[in-house]
Amino acid sequence: xxxxILVSVASWARTGDDIINDxxxxxHAQYVNVGKGLMGLARIFTQSxxxxxxxxxxxxxxxxxxxxxxxxxxxxxxxxxxYTDPSYEEMMSSEKDNSRSxxxxxxxxxxxxxxxxxxxxxxxxVIVVITGHISIDDINKVLDETGYSPVD
Length: 152
Fold this sequence. Notes:
Strand content: 25-35%
Helix content: 25-40%
Number of helices: 6
Order of helices and strands: HHEHHEHEEEEH
Shape: globular
Number of strands: 6
Structural class: alpha+beta
Largest sheet: 6 strands, antiparallel
Radius of gyration: 17 Å
């Protein structure tokens, strides 16, 4: 029975929030949480993207760039596990000068429940997690306005 519990815990999928919760208290980590209250206030200033701003319920950011190498290595290992999680869809990935940026999304095809952006590299190790219930149509409108390819 103990081995069954061990296997269950080992196969537990990590989320962007799990990574933030695990490392946010590390020495020199920078953590920001913008919850529902502040998101409501932000909606006043983001009326140009009403569908997106009304659908976002929180924004969390963790920067471990100034942490010890052991913390940064742990962050990168956890992020690599996140990239292989089948519940996330990779929307964008780019690499340049030893730096990698990735945008992942999780949703039901009509709405996005979570957007995770990650940047890793020689100088930056940052994750941003945006949660809510955001319409794909609203995301496509913003992407069209900015010139990016729409999300399918």
